[in-house]
Amino acid sequence: MQKGNIGVTTENIFPIIKKFLYSDHEIFLREALSNAVDATQKLKALARRGEFEGEMGDTTIRISNDAEKKIITISDRGIGMTAEEVDKYINQIAFSSANEFLDKYKDDVQSIIGHFGLGFYSLFMVSEKVEIYTKSYKDDARGVHWSCEGSPEYQLEEYDKKERGTDIVIHLDEESKEFAEETKINELLEKYAKFLPVPVAFGKEQEWKEDKMVDTDKDKIINNPEPAWTKKPADLEEKDYKDFYKELYPMGEDPLFHIHLNVDYPFNLTGILYFPKIRNNIEIQKNKIQLYCNQVFVTDSVEGIVPEFLTLLHGVIDSPDIPLNVSRSYLQSDSNVKKISSHITKKVADRLNDIFKEDRKQFEEKWDDLKIFIQYGMLTDEKFAERAKNFVLLKNTDGKYFTFDEYKELIKEDQTDKDKKLVHLYTTNKTEQYTFIEEAKSKGYDVLEMDGQLDVHFVNKLETDLEDASFKRVDADVLDKLIEKEVSKESKLSDEQQNNLVPVFRGRLPEDGSYIVSVENLDEDALPVMITQSEFMRRMKDMSEMQGGMNMYGNLPDSYNLVLNSNHPLIVNLASNIDEEVGGELKKTDEAIEPVQKEFDEISTKYADKKEEDLSEEEKQKRTEVQQKLDELKAEKENKLKSFGKEEKLVKQLIDLGLLANNMLKGEDLNKFVKRSVELLEE
Ligand SMILES: Nc1ncnc2c1ncn2[C@@H]1O[C@H](COP(=O)(O)OP(=O)(O)OP(=O)(O)O)[C@@H](O)[C@H]1O
Keyword set for this entry (predicted)? Predict the structure, then answer.
């Protein structure tokens, strides 16, 4: 028997390894299995080259457990090792590379991905003792038994082993004993071993016998050694891709499209990516792209390897060329990884373009689900945006789809304004903005549907990218202002009438300055009163809301325009019924209120920080005076408004109709409106 010290320099490397890699303890099983797979495949390679002529036999890798004794055994029928090889690969290389690895990353523990690099050594994260029983494939080889109890000391002796191959016996430590339980092993196999390229057996197949499930003597193979991505696209049918999707995500709905990746130069990469049909957010979070290295599961956090917008996709990427034992930041600067990332982007764009060209109908049917990926891609990846320009679609309120060019053709004639800008009208909510959409359509304009999560940003991007194009929500202004043409319409109201009318409406709107009243010369059959919200302000507020309301726009109150249609018969009528004298006086009262209100506001802000008892008599007096004056003026104004009688009621009614068309009339105001309507009908 040989005894020795493992060739590491640091005496206490075992404790270090346990401490540092704590969170990733479970990878020990993957490491042991992938060594078994390697050993099996090496033997097959030798056989192919004629360097091994013996009987291959059953090369299934077998896992067995003894939960009570805290033991897991992994047996393969691969190349095995001679005593010299154990000494070289286990005692020297495996341990010293582990040591080197830790040395390198000891100050940067957080960035250790923890995948690979530690190989055999990782078994000691969970074991108090590891044994190797092995016999090389070589003709005159003898069996060897190696054991090590988690210290740099090991024992190596001859052992009478019948079969070629290696048994790794893992004696778990007290802390890790749950790993020897059947359910835990199954869980880990499901995660790491599902697609290992060599059959792996754990437990027995079961069958129904006399009302219960019983073990048969047939081994249960837990993996699919030939997953779809390892096959040639030509050998697969649509159904195979769907079946594989189900294999990956048993609960997922059928995907929209797949993309089969297959590259061998300048890097090796295979895989299948899917555009999923997203039902809810949970699926996006749960069903992620899985990264494999030669069919061994590595991780499902692929940030940095796959461009960000594609992390929403599902599927598998398998590449031995992605450096795994490096930090994330290093990963992103790795030139292979950069190439992989841009290759994937290109492939995805090409595939979408093909489907668009070959089967536009299918593409349109799936567009609503695809939209979010494509927009996200276009917003975050210039190269993708460039490619996607050809197939990105716009959808109008009639459910028709257009490319940019097609849409331009459609609206060019009617929706070009006097500055030669092509005005795209859009809605973010077909129901809420119904009145405006209908108004636009009745003029022969087309309205786009932009109700997606990313549309606010997308509209901004399109405005920058498309030449001479602007986007306006249908309710951003009255139609004639949204798309301004050369000809301006006559007004049926005189300037004086307009001047008299505006204060009456203003008098019946909230006093907080959230409404600006204006008169526009619109069509006779357009609505008498419309409430609009400026495109710019609304967009700023929307964007700020998406960013959590962190900029100044988020804090601004909503501001609306109340537009009076000077050509609508109701407005014309109203204006002519308003007593000119009272109308003029109302305007004067308004003007008189303004400075007093301002003074009152100033006093209020000035006194706001002080306590009531700290105010001097003089200050209190001043405040009372201003307050009184303001109250008087307001009462005067109210009296004048009331003196209009029926006209005052009509003004209220018209404002409420405007609000109603915008879905803004609620609660008490809505109730008042209903009652007033009844009264007006009775009159
Ligand atoms: N089951 C096995 N059969 C035959 N040889 C093995 C087996 N397990 C380990 N070895 C030998 O021990 C060496 C060290 O294994 P270890 O897992 O530490 O590193 P690796 O597999 O070479 O690389 P990696 O860091 O990617 O795991 C292997 O290269 C192999 O030569």
Answer: ATP-binding, Chaperone, Cytoplasm, Nucleotide-binding, Stress response
Question: Using CA atoms, how far apart are residues 40 and 74, in angstroms rounded to an integer?
Answer: 13
Report ipTM for this prediction.
Answer: 0.97
Count CA atoms within 13 Å of residue 14 on its CB side.
16
Q: Side-chain half-sphere of 449: how many Cα atoms within 13 Å?
A: 19
Write the single-letter amino acid at 507: G
Q: Is residue 120 lining ligand 1, measured as CB closer than 6 Å?
A: yes
Q: From atom 11 of ligand 1, which residue's Cα is the shortest distance away?
A: 89
Q: Is the CB of 117 under 6 A from ligand 1?
A: yes
Residue 24 annotated as binding? no
Q: How far is CA 200 from CA 77, 466, 486, in A?
A: 11, 56, 77
In tens, the pLDDT along 80-98 reads 999 999 988 888 766 665 5
List all residues 6 or more positions away from 442 whose beta carbon is below 8 Å from its beta carbon. Answer: none
Secondary structure of 604-672 in HEC code, one letter for each residue: HHHHCCCCHHHCCHHHHHHHHHHHHHHHHHHHHHHHHHHHCCHHHHHHHHHHHHHHHHCCCCCHHHHHH
Protein residue whose Cα sits closest to atom 22 of ligand 1 = 119
**DSSP codes joined into one string, 10-79:** -TTHHHHHHHHTGGGTTHHHHHHHHHHHHHHHHHHHHHHTTS--S------EEEEEETTTTEEEEEE-S-
* DSSP result, 262-322: EE-SSS-EEEEEEE-----HHHHHHS--EEEETTEEEES--BTTB-GGGGGSEEEEE-TTS
Sorting pLDDT into bands at 50, 70 and 90, what band is 36? very high
Q: Is the CB of 119 under 6 A from ligand 1?
A: yes
**pLDDT tens digit string along 108-139?**
443 343 444 467 878 888 999 999 999 999 98
Pocket of ligand 1 contains residue 197 by CB under 6 Å? no
Tell me how far the alpha carbon of residue 86 lies from the centroid of ligand 1, in angstroms: 10
Closest CA relative to residue 393, chosen from 412, 381, 410: 410
94 lines ligand 1 (CB under 6 A): yes
3-state class (DSSP) for residue 396: strand
| Contact between residue 281 and residue 271 where contact means Cβ atoms under 8 Å apart | no
Which residue has the least CA distance to atom 30 on ligand 1? 89
Any ligand 1 atom below 6 A from CB of 276: no
Closest of 476, 634, 453, 484 to residue 559, by C-alpha:
476
The two tokens of residue 664 are: 């803004």
Tokens representing 447? 């309205």
From 623, 628, 617, 616, select the one nearest 602 (Cα to Cα).
Answer: 623
Nearest CA to ligand 1 atom 12: 89
CA-wise closest residue to 517 among 57, 509, 78: 509
Q: Which residues contact 636 (CB under 8 A, 6 or more apart)?
A: 589
In sequence order, the 6+-apart residues with CB closer than 8 A to the CB of 124 are 14, 17, 18, 130, 148, 150
> pLDDT digit string (tens) for 429-463?
999 899 999 999 998 999 999 988 888 889 989 98
Q: Which of 89, 136, 296 to mutate to test the pocket of ligand 1 (most atoms within 8 A of CB)?
A: 89
Q: Which domains does the chain have, with CATH numbers?
A: 2-221 (3.30.565.10), 228-380 (3.30.230.80), 393-487 (3.40.50.11260), 489-534+546-606+620-683 (1.20.120.790)
Task: Tell me the best of 38, 81, 123, 167 to mutate to test the pocket of ligand 1, counting ligand atoms within 8 Å of each CB and taking the most.
Answer: 38
Q: Give dist(CA 553, CA 247) in Å, integer.
A: 48
